Amino acid sequence: MMDDSVHSRTAFSETLSLNLTLNGEPLTLQVAPNAVLLDVLREQLGLGGTKKGCDHGQCGACTVQVDGQAMNSCLRLAVMCEGQHVTTVEGLARDGELHPVQQSFLECDAFQCGYCTPGQMMSASALLEDDRIGTDDASVKEAMSGNICRCGAYKNILEAIQQARVQLAHDATAPRKEGVA
Amino acid sequence: MNDLTQSAFAKPRVVGQRTPRIDGEYKLTGRAGYTGELLAEGMRYGYPVPATIANGVLESLELDDALAMPGVVDILHHGHFESLHRSPNSMAHGDMVSEVRLPFEDERIYYHGQYVALVVAETFEQARAAAQRVVARYREDDGAVVGLLHTDTQGELQESAGTSRGDPEAAFGGAEVKIDSTYQIAAESHLQMEMHATLAEWRDDGKRLVVHESTQGVFFQRNAMARIFGIAQENLEVISHYIGSGFGNKLFMWPHAVATAVAARMVGRPVKVVLPRQQDMTGGGNRPASRQRVRLGADRSGKLTSVIHDSTTETSWVHQYVDACGSATPSFYACDNVSTSQRVLEVNHGTPCPMRAPGEVSGIFALETAMDELAVELGMDPVALRQKNNAEQDPASGLPWSSKHLDECLTSAARRFGWDKRDPAIGSMRDGDEIIGYGMASCTWSAGRQPCEARVELRADGSLFAACGTQDIGTGTYTIVAQAVAELTGTDLSRIEVKLGETSLPAGPLSGGSMATATVLPAVAAAVRDALDAIKEVAVGSGGAFEGSDADSLSAEAGGLTDGKRRVSFAEILETSKLSSVNGKGSAAPGDERSEYSFRSFGAHFVEIRIDPEISRVRVARVVSTIDIGRAINPPTARNQVEGGIVMGLGMGLLEKLDYDPRDARLINANVADYIVPTHADAPEIDVELLDYPDFKHNEFGGRGVGEIGLTGVAPAIANAIYHATGKRYRDLPITIEALLASS
């Protein structure tokens, strides 16, 4: 049986190969087995949009979407994402156009310092696609309560989410551009 | 002359108008670089090792196992650290720090979480793993001071912090109606979303230190580091472009920044340290607990005859911090006999520091709860009692207010809230199983201003550039600077670039005390005017766009100059004269007006709480507020500040409490789950009205600042509403469900 230090030396100096799809792009990288998804995004891939607020799954600032589900990236080892689709705030805008949630956060001033904001938007954009969550204010507030905003911009965050809901519904029913010509 | 009603800002087009944040898209796309996520070539990671006791001596450190772990470069600790100097810690000289004790200065442990080592490794994972492998052995001493609220020990009287007018003791003794109550507020955590973070790098063969820090004051940190490291200020650069808020605990530098800079020098590479949340809470600042005794004397009509406000707050053993609870009290109400006193008690906690509306928010809780008690005693409406004692001028200084509209705040908020529907009888208002309580309180914060410098460039590509060494901590400073430039030049906001948060820029103020707006904008305006003078000179000069004209006949309009007949854009003027840009410098400072007027903002909060008596659950259902902050430069961001202050006030009133173990003074709840802050589901319905009375005596823009005032007065309005619902007077914050259960 190995003693602790030998075991640690082996574990922390080895890396494992990881294949995932990040913001729509396939990616292969080498990660330490104890590397957390949040730290791999921020420190290894230079994607600083995903924030560290507690590292314990308590504040929601690190929220990303894994296969479309909002998750705390600080509670997920990077190697657990093998074969999965991970979306961060950097992948929210499409073709240079802000996502409706980003646009409504800007218009409603749904942030102050901006640090919890990527997590808020990743949760918001997931819940707007989630049929299990009611569309009324109380349901949205409850569903968003895993994302703490210490600046206290909750009122504007709620307004932004409900405004984005309207925009998304409008986008879904609007005729496609190529069809209009 | 300070009355600038004829100024360019009397009828502004951009200032005072709803303006989306110019840094918004950066924050919303993840492109805004906060300190903790910055990367540097060859960077190493630091991870501090915190003390696990609160009072004793570090007897030994076992480092061999940690040093042998993969990627570990070095471990700093007492005995393996540079010899440095302390900062003089002067507010006047701009080198104040949050904790004067240097990291690893001695082996004494003064508080739980004090750093005993800093591990430096190649990756974050390696540094964290090795930090957990460091074994520290302590001698734990008896007699840790657990906290002010765990002891009857009197703190030391701060002679300089007290005030007195008239004969308050005699007036209290002879008063027809008396209130004599003691209020206690638990220590709070700022819990700013971004933990303290430093990235330090020595350049030019170790001659120059460049530090990225999540800070509310780049210049203060630069000056303090220059003193501590004994290097010229010119060889130090501190940068902070985006800050995940601060609420006061990022005003002044903490020891982690010093340790990080030393580590960078010792390992010869850039080093980054992001404090783990637990360490941020134990050693990165807190609002100290307070105990306050307030005595009010009044006559039967409700006229105050005496106000005596005696406060004690905590500090640490390694740094003296005075949280002056009574500082608003002498100015709050018209009363001839007023005194305040302040004591400070050393406790075994991490050093406290300013937290949003420092001192005053605690003092206003005590004073405005006491006023509610007085209203009950008199059988008088709480709003009427406040109106009865309105201070028409500042009773502390004897000076007239620059602008005060508290009465309109009280009446307007009361009307929107529906205060006239309040039945004053205890527990008389119900909705199904819930008891409804209505409570109110006034709020206030001083309006300060500091000296400031700024620079503006008009560029040949048509863009404008403004720079100031202040910061935007989320309040919207980037945007209001752009608004000021747009206002004075007529340039579209999209063509204005603003740079803040660097010590290479003209000296700017701390982002704190609700002073940044009134401090920075006048300097920016002066720089714009200087740049306009420069481009007018160019325009009327030989070969210029207005060659031969009188420079004084030209004025700025729509991003160019006009003589009344013809407008030429700045870009064209510069192009015509083959120039790439002109530069303007400006500075501004408070002046004689400070001895002619008193400057303070006022407002009022009205709160509806609902209690389910079966389970002692209290919820804040509704907050209606009217605040007079002079002019809001950007109304949505200003309102956002007040709304956020109300949410934080809900936390102060009902939820927030740093819990120290009564056995050994260790902080029990140093994490975001056990230290409870308001979540989205806790957020009440909020209706904030900002009055619009520009205060041109304060500055030419008319704004008095907005960061703190929204928080003040919320907790007492909640406590007063709970009294209305239950008849129980809660004088200790937070009013937790446990407290409600215990007294139900």
Pick out its properties:
heterodimer, A: alpha+beta, Ubiquitin-like (UB roll), DNA polymerase, domain 1, 7 helices, globular, B: 744 residues, alpha+beta, Aldehyde Oxidoreductase, domain 4, seven-stranded mixed β-sheet, 25% strand, disordered N terminus
Mean pLDDT, all residues of chain A: 91
- Biggest chain pair interface: A-B, 62 and 68 residues
The count of strands of chain A amounts to: 5
- The class by helix and strand makeup of chain B works out as alpha+beta
CATH superfamily of the domain at 359-448 and 595-742 in chain B, by name, is Aldehyde oxidase/xanthine dehydrogenase, molybdopterin binding domain
Summarize the structure.
With 181 residues, chain A is an alpha+beta fold. Helices cover 38% and strands 14% of the residues of chain A.
Descriptive notes:
The complex is a heterodimer of chains A (181) and B (744). Chain A has 181 residues and is an alpha+beta fold. Chain A folds into 2 domains: 14-91, Beta-grasp domain (Ubiquitin-like (UB roll), Roll); 100-172, [2Fe-2S]-binding domain (DNA polymerase, domain 1, Orthogonal Bundle), CATH 1.10.150.120. Chain A has helices at residues 4-13, 37-44, 100-107, 117-127, 137-143, 154-173, 177-180, and strands at residues 16-22, 25-31, 63-66, 69-72, 85-87. Chain A has a 5-stranded mixed β-sheet with strand order 2-1-5-3-4, covered by helices on one side. Chain A is globular, with a radius of gyration of 18 Å. Chain A starts with a helix and ends with a helix. Residues 1-11 of chain A have low confidence and may be disordered. Chain B is an alpha+beta fold and 744 residues long. Among the domains of chain B are: 24-32 and 449-589, Aldehyde oxidase/xanthine dehydrogenase, molybdopterin binding domain (Aldehyde Oxidoreductase, domain 4); 359-448 and 595-742, Aldehyde oxidase/xanthine dehydrogenase, molybdopterin binding domain (Aldehyde Oxidoreductase, domain 4, 2-Layer Sandwich). Chain B contains 18 helices and 29 strands. In chain B, helix 12 (477-489) packs parallel to helix 13 (516-540) and helix 16 crosses helix 17 (714-726). The longest helix of chain B has 25 residues, at 516-540. Chain B is globular, with a radius of gyration of 27 Å. The model of chain B is unreliable at 1-5 (pLDDT under 50). At the A-B interface, helix 1, helix 2, helix 3, helix 4 and helix 6 of A face helix 1, helix 3 and helix 16 of B.
